[in-house]
Design goal:
Blueprint lengths: L2 H11 L4 E2 L2 H6 L14 E3 L4 H14 L3 E4 L16 E4 L6 E5 L4 E4 L5 H9 L3 E2 L12 H7 L6 H4 L6 E7 L5 E5 L12 H4 L8 E8 L1 E2 L3 E9 L2 H13 L6 E6 H11 L9 E9 L1 H17 L4 E4 L3 H12 L1 H6 L4 E4 L9 H14 L3 E7 L4 E8 L4 H20 L18 H20 L12
Helix pairs in contact: 1-3, 8-10, 8-13, 13-14
Length: about 450
């Protein structure tokens, strides 16, 4: 990257927000994806929408790539610059612009931390349900770009279900406004869902308007112990079949339980194959009935022990145990390959068997946890990327896992995105026509191909 071009960028954001030193570039050469490294040419921290637009306009004219980045929690390599281009880091764009209690919306800049928005709206008796596992560090811009899910996805859905309006800067810096605060809008193509989960390849968000709902009046948190893994999977199917939709229905296998307990010391059982973390919320009378139904179903599916949190502190302890699953597993070996194969709920038991069989076949350690209620499992391989043979075996195992997920009518990613890590699997999922249509959309939005190149395709 020419010094004169970097000087032009400095004129836009200021010298202190233009990072070119070796240490900074090395830090931004990674995100949370294992085995991926790609150093940018420069990192910029704009402080306004106008600065973002000016950066894009300048880069567009020079053919320089731009990759948006929030907190770098991406798990598919999506926030890495693949060709020494510009990383546009959004941490300074962190204002909650408005909480509109009359229209039940909140408008935020892309750098707002997810849990910050949670706390703000809940202080007003409102609720923003999407709660990715990284919510205490992940940003709203990243959540929208990846269509993040979370522990409450079963009942409440994912980020896309709450995005009402977007301000998006296109590749040349022009501003595109889509949606808004209206509940109904069928004027032209529905562009919001297209931009959500576009992984920074179609535009860069400068403002996001999300739907809010009333805060649930109460909740009950439960933990069920299962000596046999398959019985836990059967319990998940039975709960859904009984027309009980918990806010949270999470799964941890034996490997994950041991790692979490060694890490967090929350009292998880070490003598079972699996546990289910279940939470129902809503009106107190309704959740009491739902909790009783869940307990009865778990006992019928050979749950060995069923506990109900007696207070808010105990409930939080159980929930946080699930949220620490990835951190706990990551302590076991240097490299943690976390995936998110997703299948129809009726196939969870079969998918768990495939994961176990693949781990055994290729002699790798795979701990599995995830959002069992919506079929989104996180098989997590614990390895050491310095051991090339072990890494090859790990990828072979995941290849079989993804093939099985596709064969079951599932998908290669439920919430982490395609990015760099999974683009080789995408044609198998969507076919040649799917790739052709997606490339056509990409070319329409970004004909020069400067926005987050090398991702998805």
């Amino acid at each position: 990257m020419q010094p004169s071009f970097i000087n032009d960028l400095k004129c836009i954001v200021g010298e202190q927000y233009t990072l070119t030193d070796r240490e900074s570039l090395a830090v931004y050469g990674y995100d949370s994806t294992p085995e991926q490294e790609s150093q940018p040419g420069v990192v910029l921290l704009p402080g306004s929408r106008d600065e973002m637009a000016s950066i894009l306009n300048l880069c567009h004219g020079s053919g320089i790539s731009v990759t948006p980045r929030g907190s770098g929690t991406n798990l598919s390599g999506g926030s890495l610059s693949t060709n020494s281009g510009v990383i546009l880091q959004t941490s300074r764009l962190n204002r909650i612009i408005e909480v509109d209690e009359e229209n039940l919306t909140a408008t935020v800049e892309p750098g707002v931390i997810t849990s910050t928005l949670h706390r703000e709206v809940e202080s007003r008796g409102l609720f923003y349900p999407p709660d990715p596992g990284s919510m205490n560090i992940s940003t709203m811009g990243g959540n929208v770009a990846e269509n993040s899910g979370g522990l409450r996805g079963l009942k409440y859905g994912v980020t896309a279900d709450y995005v009402m309006g977007l301000e998006t800067l296109l590749a040349d810096g022009d501003l595109l406004r889509t949606g808004g605060k209206v509940v109904k809008d069928v004027a032209g193509y529905s562009l919001n869902p297209l931009l959500v989960s576009s992984e920074g390849t179609l535009g860069i968000f400068s403002a996001i308007t999300v739907k809010l709902i009333p805060k649930p009046q109460g909740k009950i948190t439960m933990l069920a112990h299962f000596p046999v893994l398959q019985d836990a999977a059967l319990a998940v199917s039975a709960i859904i079949a009984a027309k009980v939709i918990p806010a949270t229905l999470e799964f941890l296998d034996k490997v994950t339980i041991k790692c979490v307990e060694n890490y967090a010391r929350v009292g998880l059982p070490l003598d079972v194959d699996a546990v289910l973390l279940i939470e129902v919320d809503g009106h107190p009378v309704v959740i009491a009935e739902e909790a009783a139904a869940v307990a009865n179903i778990c006992k019928k599916t050979r749950c060995s022990f069923f506990q109900t949190a007696q207070n808010a502190a105990e409930a939080l302890k159980l929930t946080e145990a699930r949220r620490t699953a990835l951190s706990a597993l990551a302590r076991l070996k240097p490299t943690t390959i976390l995936e998110d194969a997703t299948v129809p709920r009726s196939c969870i038991a079969a998918m768990l068997k495939v994961i176990q069989d693949s781990a055994k076949k290729y002699n790798v350690i795979i701990g599995t946890f995830g959002h069992a209620g919506d079929g989104n499992l996180h098989p997590t391989c614990l390895a050491d990327e310095r051991d090339k043979d072990e890494i090859m075996r790990a990828h072979a195992a995941f290849g079989e896992i993804f093939e099985a997920a596709i064969a079951m009518g599932g998908t290669i990613t439920g919430e982490h995105g395609v990015g760099l890590a999974k683009k080789k699997y995408l044609p198998r999922l969507v076919g040649e026509s799917g790739i052709r249509v997606m490339r056509g959309i990409k070319n329409a939005f970004d004909p020069k191909g400067i926005l987050n190149p090398g991702k998805i395709f």
